[in-house]
Each structure stands twice: as C-alpha cells, then as structure tokens.
# Entry
Amino acid sequence: WLIKQEEAEEVWQTVLNMLAERQIPIETSSETHVETGWLVWKSEDEETDIGSRYSVDRFEANNRYGFRISLIDWREGTQIKPVTLTNKERYNVFMTNLVTSQYDQNKRDEAQRKAQELVKQIPITMGSDRSGFPVIIARTPYNVLWQRLPTILPRIGFNIEERNQSQGTLKAKYASPDDEFWNEIGVKPLELKSGTYTFLFGDLGNRTSINVTNSAGKPVEEELLKSLAPILAAVAKQE
# Structure
C-alpha cells in the first residue's frame, strides 16, 4: 500500500522496467494489470529448476494505492503442477523482493543525483563555528557534502586514507597538484606542506563547517583556511 499516487506510479513503472531488464516475457498487459510468462528460478534449496508465472495488479481503495503480486502458475523442471500455499507464500516474496529492491535502488540513485546537483551550487566561504572560531562554511547540509568529498578532495591533492561519517572526520595525505591544475581552476595555489591532515566537519543544519588539523592534531592557521575556501568552492563548482 502507498499513500501517494505518484509513488504508486513509480512502483508500477519499476515493475515494468524490471520485467524488461530481466527479459521476463509478458503474456498480457493493460494500464492496471500484467500477466507474465515463465520466470525460471535456480536455487540450491530445490532439486530442479522452478518456473513460475505471475499476475501483477495495481488498484485504488480507501484513498490508498496498492499493487499486488500473485503466483498463478507453477512448474518443476518441465512438469506443470498445482500452485500450493507454500509455493505461493515463498515465491510471491521472491518476486516482490525483486521489485522492492529495484525501487529502493532507483530512490538511492535519484537521491545521489539530487545531491550532486546541490553540491554544484553550494557557496563555500569563511565563517565561524558556534564557539566563534574561524572555519570554512559550506552552505549545504552535511550529508550532501559528505557524498561529494571523495571526488572533491583528491582533485585538490588530498589522498583520502580514512573517513568516518558519524564522527565527521576525514584523514588525508596532501601532495600539491601540478601547475596545470591551479591554472585550470584559476585560484592561487595552496601554501600547504606535504603531509597528513584531518578534516573536521560539523553539521550546522543547512550548513556544514569545515576545519583542518595537522598531523599533531593542532588546527591549521586561519590564513590557510582562507586560501583553502575558494579552492574548495572552485572544484565543487566544476564537479
């Protein structure tokens, strides 16, 4: 059951796409009904290959939108047999899992695409944290920025070694890119010694604070943060 009609439409389209991608034959179809041809399951739990056919329906009732998957035919090897309750319970779940896993993957892909679009547009400037200390401020939610760090930081010269999203820490070894990179982004090169640094990210709601510490765990100088901010902004925009 689904509350929104648009979600029901997405699930129905997922069913159709999944059948096409897996090359599952369709015997009959309409805007609200699909009856499949034979789908073959290979399982170590079964002595022979299992064939099954399904009917898939979508409908509306009591201001809710549903879709139903029903096992309608059963085959063991080449022999067609009656559909038992046990068959129905088990293989309805298998088929439903194919649909829901594809639907979930589609949603994750969509969220990632939106995150990438948001990161392209984020302003990155100097600011201060809740204690008043200077930090870089990225005007985007923490989880959105985090997804893009593995592509942004290596371009700047930070080779990521460890990262922990729940703690908001990322450890990276720095080696300055060549002159071609700095000319490409049109920003003054970062005056930073080669070595290992830790990025500290703070979740400020619709913004994210960024600080950097050296290998001794001490914050880098404010001037270094000020020169890093426009570099992050330029690379994020390119990405």
